Amino acid sequence: MYDELTQVDIDKMQAEMEHRIRDLRPQLIEEVQVARGFGDLSENYEYKCAKQAKNRNESRIRYLERMIRTAKVIEVKSQDDVVGLFDKVTIFNEMVKQEMVMEIVTTLRQNALKGLISKESPVGKALMGHRVGDRVLVEVSPDMKYYVEIRAIKKGEDDASLDISSY
Q1: In what order do the strands lie in the sheet with 145-154?
Q2: Burial class (CB in 10 A: 0-12, 13-18, 19+), 28
Q3: pTM for the whole thing?
Q4: Residue 19 confidence (pLDDT) above 60
């Protein structure tokens, strides 16, 4: 399986990976070596922490390499009057009787607490390609479905200001 990502996503991951390899890796290796010199490794908390930090960095590097290698690069193109990638959409959720604003983003930049909804999520999939005034069915599962009404669309662009998620 692959993730559909923009070129900006790939560039951000590449930059993070280079920083982790070039800057963080040598620093973390040195911290492990210094902590190793503090004595008995079975009771050396500094050594355990340094090893954990080094291992987290190596894990993140492997994750970024895999994401870059398996990604499908997509173009950001949308019509003026329909919901597309990086658009801010104002919806009225009929189930909770509340208006919400969300931005449709790639899976790598999603953060529901900040209103950044993945285009792969049930809400994102349902909204993509629809217009203002459309009443759209969001199907979370076979048992959980609800309707939202699109009230406004503010066109956006992939300006690289959104951070990529950590995992």
Answers
A1: 116-118, 98-105, 88-93, 145-154, 135-139
A2: buried
A3: 0.78
A4: yes
Banded pLDDT at 39 (limits 50, 70, 90): confident
pLDDT in tens, 129-143: 999 999 999 999 999
For residue 126, the SS3 value is helix
Q: Would you say 78 and 87 are in contact if contact means Cβ atoms under 8 Å apart? A: yes
Residues 28 and 54: beta-carbon distance below 8 Å: yes
- For 16, 35, 139, the CA distances from 23, given in Å and listed in that order, are 10, 19, 45
Convert the pLDDT of each residue in 64-86 to its tens digit: 999 999 999 988 877 788 999 99
Single-letter residue type at 28: L
- Nearest-10 Cα torsion for 6, 115, 150, 97: 160
